[in-house]
């Protein structure tokens, strides 16, 4: 594995009149597992598509080391974006969905110079995938398994997975996370996992990237983030006094009581704790505080 950094500089993406990504900067370092989280429509799939040159940015550029990724096969050999497969489609997508799984895997192998056929065959057995079944006849869970197999067997240094556990039951999801950690430990590959199932993935994500309204609003080591995230509740006046000078990411008021979520910056601390209830916050609640509904005084 190389030590090349993948970076996006001032990426913008427009679809007609809609601005999906807005002058976005991102640096992905080798040898990490990143979690990419954001609400529907935040631009996660678009970002991964641009990073892997499956879509072209309207502005800015993506570079692996000093080399641009767009129309650069040598750079793209290091990158794999195994997209979520849809049930419907037209044109080329419809043709792909008409393939049997074994033929789809053969097609994927043609485009991946470091393809590990033994791994692909092992994962087919582990996931109990019927390779003679056509993609358009597969369940959502089976399609997810297929995208996972392609991602893992690609052996790409930078591997992106878009909602890989979508449709998987709890046993298969646990199987995926175990596989992800084993492959990361064995190879040191960099993975970016886009997911809505945040909390169960938290233990395997070294860094979390939060995308909101086409911009990255947070990129941080997961452990460091959770160490400075707190949920504070109690009497309204006591809560307000305790968080004075702190940035509040979410606030709710119920009569004379209120609750807030804060992320402490270096040197900051919660004020007079009094009778307040102060609890650590899990990753999902941090995400909800950053990207959920606006502050409420109802």
Structural write-up:
This protein is of the alpha/beta class and 298 residues long. The chain has eleven helices and 14 strands. It has helices at 44-51, 73-76, 91-97, 101-110, 117-126, 140-154, 170-187, 198-201, 222-227, 236-242, 283-291, and strands at residues 6-15, 18-28, 33-37, 59-64, 67-68, 79-82, 158-162, 190-194, 207-212, 215-221, 229-235, 248-254, 257-263, 277-280. The strands form three sheets. A six-stranded mixed sheet has the order 6-7-8-3-9-10, with helices on both faces. The protein has a four-stranded antiparallel sheet with strand order 2-1-4-5, with helices on one face. A four-stranded antiparallel sheet has the order 12-13-11-14. Helix 7 (170-187) links the parallel strand 7 (158-162) and strand 8 (190-194). Helix 4 (101-110) packs parallel to helix 6 (140-154). The radius of gyration is 21 Å and the shape is globular.
């Amino acid at each position: 594995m190389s030590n090349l950094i993948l970076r996006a500089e001032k990426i913008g993406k427009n679809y007609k009149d809609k601005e999906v990504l807005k002058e976005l900067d991102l640096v992905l370092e080798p040898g990490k597992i990143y979690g990419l989280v954001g609400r529907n429509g935040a631009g996660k799939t678009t970002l991964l598509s641009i990073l892997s040159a499956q879509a072209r940015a309207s502005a800015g550029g993506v570079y692996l080391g000093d080399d641009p990724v767009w129309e650069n096969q040598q750079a793209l050999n290091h990158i794999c974006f195994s997209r979520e497969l849809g049930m419907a489609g037209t044109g080329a997508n419809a043709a792909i969905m008409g393939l049997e799984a074994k033929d789809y895997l053969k097609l994927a192998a043609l485009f991946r110079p470091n393809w590990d056929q033994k791994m692909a065959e092992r994962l087919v057995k582990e996931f109990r995938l019927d390779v003679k079944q056509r993609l358009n006849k597969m369940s959502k869970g089976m399609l997810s398994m297929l995208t996972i197999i392609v991602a893992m067997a690609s052996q790409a240094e930078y591997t992106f997975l878009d909602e890989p556990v979508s449709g998987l039951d709890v046993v298969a999801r646990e199987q995926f996370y175990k596989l992800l950690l084993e492959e990361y430990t064995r190879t040191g590959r960099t993975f970016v996992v886009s997911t809505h199932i945040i909390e169960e993935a938290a233990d395997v994500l070294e860094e979390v990237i939060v995308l909101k309204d086409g911009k990255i609003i947070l990129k941080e080591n997961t452990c460091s983030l959770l160490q400075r995230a707190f949920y504070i509740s109690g009497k309204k006046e006591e809560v307000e006094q305790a968080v004075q000078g702190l940035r509040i990411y979410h606030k709710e008021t119920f009569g004379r009581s209120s609750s807030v979520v804060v992320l402490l910056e270096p040197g900051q601390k919660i004020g007079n704790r009094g009778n307040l209830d102060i609890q650590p916050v899990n990753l999902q609640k941090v995400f909800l505080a950053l990207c959920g509904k606006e502050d409420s005084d109802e």
